[in-house]
Amino acid sequence: MEKIRVLVADDVAETRENIRRxxxxxxxxxxxxxxxxxxxAVRMAxxxxxxxxxxxxxMPVLDGIAATEMISLRVPxxxxxxxxxxxxxxxxxKAMMAGAREYLVKPFSSDELxxxxxxxxxxxxxxxxxxxxxxxxxxxxxNPKIITVFSTKGGVGKTTIAVNLxxxxxxxxxxxVVLVDLDLQFGxxxxxxxxxxxxxxxxxxxxxxxxxxxxxxxxxxxxxSGIKVLTAPLRPEYAELVTxxxxxxxxxxxxxxxxYIVVDTPSYFQETTLTALDLSNLILLLVSLELPxxxxxxxxxxxxxxxxxxxxxxxxxxxxxxxxxxxCADMERSLNFQVAAHIPSDGRTVVAAVNKGIPFVIxxxxxxxxxxxxxxxxxxxxxxxxRREQAAESKEAKGILARLFG
Length: 406
Ligand SMILES: Nc1ncnc2c1ncn2[C@@H]1O[C@H](COP(=O)(O)OP(=O)(O)OP(=O)(O)O)[C@@H](O)[C@H]1O
Ligand SMILES: [Mg+2]
Fold this sequence. Notes:
13 strands; 17 helices; binds adenosine-5'-triphosphate; 16% strand; Rossmann fold; 2 domains; alpha/beta
């Protein structure tokens, strides 16, 4: 069962502790964070995308009303409940005008608290359900984006970034997100998300002739973070069953139902990868500060340029803090391309998350690396839209040589 995720903002530690205690036995509610003032509340709401924020009115740095107004604008999916003491009616009115959904008068019982949280959460769900079909129905307003994470070097962090980006896209937008593992031979997405797929892309392509978006849905695995996943074949030899035209059909069908389609890829240009690159709105090309990687990425940029994809490329520097030898500026000069996002090196967080099968944007939301992923996510949200027109039709499926010299 998905829990209702609650952020508590109150400057009195005892009150926060008390709320935790009151909610302790509610199985469907989880306190995911505590903020000591309004400013911290805004920051944490952006970071955690809680379902409900319990907000005190009088707080230092930034008061609860100003914080309510900022959160309503920046994290519209979070329903805010104001906690006031008797006699703050005037403030209550202001808080409701700032976007609060409900209020609680202190002191409250655990039943009152839990009921209010459930009530605003359910209302918010209904509100979204009403809004969603109108958004999906008007093709003009829906603007699905395909984001491919690519690199011409293995082990540079493609899967790590693809997985965390997909989850962060859902956290930040609450739109429909699907992650497609196109590393067909050795895909790691399922293991990184700790999902056990019953059916993978290799079973899916057996039904390609009658495939529609509804049937496709049956092959996607739901992850507890809220995203869907299309996993890679269970064995490397099944990879060959999946062709470029299958990939084209699958990605186009996913566009009917999903807002963000994140594609993880292997480290080489093969036909299925080329098709994903053709159909992408945005290509995140990963690089690290090592000479062999830089050399290969330089070649990749040349090829992407020849294929007319360079305009869609954003260069992402992974393990950016490992600048022992090569400096970022030198690399940018050598590649003649600017780095758009820096992801720091943080083996401790990454490995802990991988071993638990939980993306670090969920297990370690306060880490610098999670913060960097959220910045990359904002960049993707801003850029995907503008680049829409650049997502080309898929070229006739053929290999890299034929394309370069064709
Ligand atoms: N920013 C980072 N800090 C520390 N370790 C990282 C970072 N990014 C990735 N790693 C580690 O590097 C290794 C390779 O990462 P990952 O599997 O994501 O790369 P990949 O490009 O998908 O590899 P492959 O080409 O094999 O599919 C993993 O052990 C991962 O935990
Ligand atoms: Mg990988």
